[in-house]
Amino acid sequence: MQRVNKGRIRYDSNELNILAQSVNCYSIIEIFQSVLVFSLLIGCFFGLLALLVEIH
């Protein structure tokens, strides 16, 4: 339960654990998304390179 004390919000330990897990899960999803985008860009680059080699 959140408690407001002089403008500061205090969380219980269970809420802190939930917040930490959600932040950790979000960072894992962010890393997976960036790796996926990077691999798609590399795949498109090599695909275009192979297409140019086949044309010539």
Question: What order do the helices and strands come in, and which of them pair?
Answer:
Layout: E1 3-5, E2 8-10, H1 13-55
Antiparallel strand pairs: 1-2
What does this structure look like?
The protein has 56 residues and is mainly alpha-helical. It has one domain. The protein has 1 helix and 2 strands; from the N terminus they run ββα. The protein has one helix spanning 13-55; strands spanning 3-5, 8-10. The chain has a two-stranded antiparallel sheet with strand order 1-2. A hairpin with a 2-residue loop joins strand 1 (3-5) and strand 2. The longest helix is centred in the middle third of the chain and has 43 residues, at 13-55. The model has no long low-confidence stretch (mean pLDDT 83). The chain crosses the membrane at residues 31-53. Keywords: Membrane, Transmembrane, Transmembrane helix.
Give the structure's gist in a few sentences.
Keywords: Membrane, Transmembrane, Transmembrane helix. The chain is mainly α and 56 residues long.
Individual helix count:
1
**Approximately what portion of the residues adopt beta-strand conformation?**
5-15%
Assign the structural class, choosing from mainly alpha, mainly beta, alpha/beta, alpha+beta, or little secondary structure: mainly alpha
Instruction: Count the domains.
Output: 1
Shape verdict:
rod-shaped
Summarize model confidence as the mean pLDDT.
Answer: 83
Q: Helix-strand pattern, N to C?
A: EEH
Major sheet characteristics: 2 strands, antiparallel
| Helix content bin | over 70%
Low-pLDDT parts are none
Provide the spatial order of strands within the biggest beta sheet.
Answer: 1-2
Counting DSSP E segments of at least 2 residues, the number of strands comes to 2
Q: What's the alpha carbon Rg, rounded to whole Å?
A: 23 Å
Separation of the first and last Cα atoms = 68 Å
